[in-house]
Amino acid sequence: MLLAGMNFALLFAALVQRRTRPLLRDQELRLYLALLGVGTLVLALELAGEGLYAGEQAIRHAVFQTVSTMTTTGFASADFTTWTTLTAVILVGLMFIGGSAGSTAGSVKVVRHLLIGKVLRRELDQTVHPEIVSPIPLNGSVVQERTLRAVIAFVLLYVGLFAVGALLITLDEALANSRVTAFEAVAASATTLGNVGPAFGFAGPMGSFEPFSDLSKAVMIVLMWLGRLEIIPVIVLFTKRYWRT
Amino acid sequence: MISVARLRRAFRRDTFGVDVEAVLDLVGALLKYLGLAFLVPAAVALGYGESVWPFLLSGAITSAAGAALERLATGKERVSPREGFLIVALTWLLVPAFGSLPYVFAGEAELGRPINAYFESVSGFTATGATVLEDFDTLTRSLALWRQFTQWLGGMGIIVLAIAILPRLRVGGRQLLQSELAGPTEVERLSVSIRDTARRLWVLYVALTAVLIALLALLGWTGVEERMNLFEAAAHAFTTVSIGGFSTQARSLEAFGPAVQWTVALFIVLAGINFLRLYRLFVQRHGRAFARDEELRLYLLLLTIGSAVLLVELVGSGRFAGEEAVRHAVFQAVSIMTTTGFASTDYVAWGPLAAVTIVGLMFFGASAGSTGGSIKVVRHLLISRLLRRELDQTVHPEIVSPIRLNGAVVEERTLRAVLAFVLLYVGFFALGALALVVESFRTTTGVSPFEAIAAAAATLGNVGPAYGFAGPMGSYEPFSPLSKVIMIGLMWLGRVEIIPVVVLLTRAYWRS
């Protein structure tokens, strides 16, 4: 999972062409590993601190769940729905990070987070010194403004669709009178849009999405489809401009 | 005195890129006048035969501290936008600190503890409405009025901040407020100077408050609402017009009948409109331009949609029917979306659909240029237009189309600032929620993930009540001291629109 969540172009260069430098120097890879490290550390401390697991077991479950959830794989080495509140929030948070661009992972992806961070940093510098015009570099080359705008648009659409998805799932559950809590609906929306898999409640890693109503399943089918195609190709179909000659 | 001299030298422009001395001078001047505000609760205390000393002492300390700061630091009349960030950030930290003194001096059972006093005061001056009070019965009349009054004072500050200061700091974007609504002469006249703009809008603010006090008092006087007297009318008018949400009643607006609830809901909707536009409607009589405003239309549309979704939940679950269902749905949608925080009934007991809708509404906010908090409607409007353009450009990369608001082209710079704000807002919300979960877990406070999410959204958005024990009929008291500090930070960040605080953390800001 860890390997499959890396950029395949860089992996190819490293493994087949024996050029490891681009891979090792890649800023996205570094952030990817750092995020996995932080997620693992927090989960391990929490699991050990709460006495749920000890020693190797705590570390194994923490590493496994972090890697599996953040890269949007969805395997589970233990039923994390029975873990604590803190782990629940962290796991749902990890669902929004994703793997590297150019991997088979879903969700927002690490490079977009990296670029958003750089854009915000520049915006703050420009707030103080409006005269500054500085390009944003990634791995030494300048990223086009057009690309940056597309990244921001994607992230905002992602957050917006996630919220709409969560609302629709609760709307349907309220009408069908089934028992889905607000947090479970949020998790279900995040997990399907991010192409992760398991959520919380009955839709946990050892459970099934079967108890959801038909309408909720339809909503989640759309979310998985949107997430996989990176949203914009689908939404574009709904603009008038696309169909006009 | 040598140390003072050295300190002063260190604060001069040659050490930092920012004139810290001028900043302290201005903040000092503000505190000096803030001292006078304590005379209002002191007068109430006299009227009810309660102790006036907590207020007089607090007022004296505030004025003295302000005068001392002004003395120590010699400033100039004019400061640059760069100093503005520090002034804004410091003011919204220091004013609540002095405003919390009466709670401590009065030795109030719950508010007397310093952390609680500061939380309540920050929640007051930022017009949030999150309270740590659990027992409302032992609160003296004068202290109860001070709570309400801090929100009203905060509202006055927010109007100046939102309309005169933040646009100059490129945070709100002047264009978002003024656009092409009125003829160019009016725009000019209305923005002659910060002082003049503030004075005009304060008149409107005071007038709105006075009308609401009169209406509520009339409801009490005619016997429609027995529990409403002049004190309650003033107390609730203060926190309605400021979009604050503090109440003197433990059960918030549930303590009053339908007539009061509908009246308050109407005034919340009014207070959530851009004050510049309200001024043009009421004073300059530009009814047409007012009705055509794109932000206003979206604002009313969103309020309607929010009310409709809540109504579906209330009727569908059979909790309420008829007028009651409509009233509770409208009241909660209006109160939460504008970030007021009053409640006409305990919405915590409602179903998951209502829960997700209510927390979702916390991210909309009222109009720009009102006393409401959160992201604000105009930013949502611009973001949707930006996304629309982005999609059009995906299909036709050669298209270059400007984005318009009320017919005027919005600068790309303003759009970038809007994007940065929204991304930072979402980021701080997520960080805040995570921090609250970590902390409540460490101290075994028993907060569910959804409750932590709601509390972060409610404090960052300056809404007030959240879910669980921090619901509209509950209190933030069970949160640990560190959680309270985190939420004080969120209320502060949300109120000053994040960027003035985050900018202070960059090296570029302090370098000369």
Describe the structure.
The complex is a heterodimer of chains A (245) and B (512). Chain A is mainly alpha-helical and 245 residues long. Chain A contains 11 helices and 2 strands; from the N terminus they run H-H-H-H-H-H-E-E-H-H-H-H-H. Chain A has helices at residues 8-15, 21-25, 27-49, 55-70, 85-94, 110-128, 145-176, 182-193, 214-228, 232-236, 240-243, and strands at 136-138, 141-143. In chain A, helix 6 (110-128) packs across helix 7, helix 7 (145-176) runs antiparallel to helix 9 (214-228) and helix 8 runs parallel beside helix 9 (214-228). With 512 residues, chain B is mostly helical. Helix content of chain B is 65%, strand content 1%. The longest helix of chain B has 31 residues, at 412-442. The model of chain B is unreliable at 178-191 (pLDDT under 50). Classes of the chains: A mainly alpha (245), B mainly alpha (512). At the A-B interface, helix 5, helix 6, helix 7, helix 8 and helix 10 of A face helix 16, helix 18, helix 19, helix 20 and helix 21 of B.
**Helix/strand order of chain B, N-terminal first:** HHHHHHHHHHHHHHHHHHHEEHHHHH
Radius of gyration of chain B: 22 Å
Biggest sheet overview of chain A: 2 strands, antiparallel
Termini of chain A, distance in Å?
A: 44 Å
List unreliable stretches of 5+ residues of chain A.
Answer: none
Strands of the widest sheet of chain A, in order across it, are 1-2
Overall geometric form of chain B: globular
Q: What proportion of the residues of chain A form beta strands (DSSP E)?
A: under 5%
Radius of gyration of chain A: 20 Å
Number of strands of chain A: 2
Overall pLDDT metric of chain B: 88
- Major sheet attributes of chain B: 2 strands, antiparallel
Question: What general outline of chain A do the C-alpha atoms trace?
Answer: globular
Quick one: how many beta strands of chain B? 2
